[in-house]
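Tutorial handout. Part one gives the primary structure; part two gives the three-dimensional structure as tokens.
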Amino acid sequence: MVDFPDDLSDLEGPEERRLGYIESMVEVAGEDARHVMLYVTLALTAILVTLTQLPFDRLVGMPLAFRCLLLLGLVLVGAGASCFFRYVRALHIARMGIARCIASADAKHARQLWAGEVGVWERRGHFYRWGMKLSATGGCAVALCVAYLLLNGD
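Part two.
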């Protein structure tokens, strides 16, 4: 991880350079949001494919433990998607705040909104981390149930 000076002295300098820094930060936040929205899309697609493409009669015929595991997996994947969406929403709000810093060329404030104590990762990064945990756990549960269906062969 890169260490930045605590006094933010690296953000002093010509206005053009500070504006370029802020504009780059706005772009990075937008790219981050688009990247995380791919996780949301993937999670929701996995739920829809599972519910629409697996034969319902075979799902109902699975042992109760596997049906419960499948349901739990789908719920966890959905909860993960919700966490990712909440993180994207926080990114959007932070991005608006950072963009507002362009008017005053306040690169220090922009950095605080992105990576400081009040920054998006410090205050809302737990949504991203939980989204990963929930989606991965739920995805594994769903994959286990799909594997059971494929290997059972009834």
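Part three, for discussion. The radius of gyration is 21 Å. The helical segments are 15-53, 56-61, 64-100, 107-115, 120-152.
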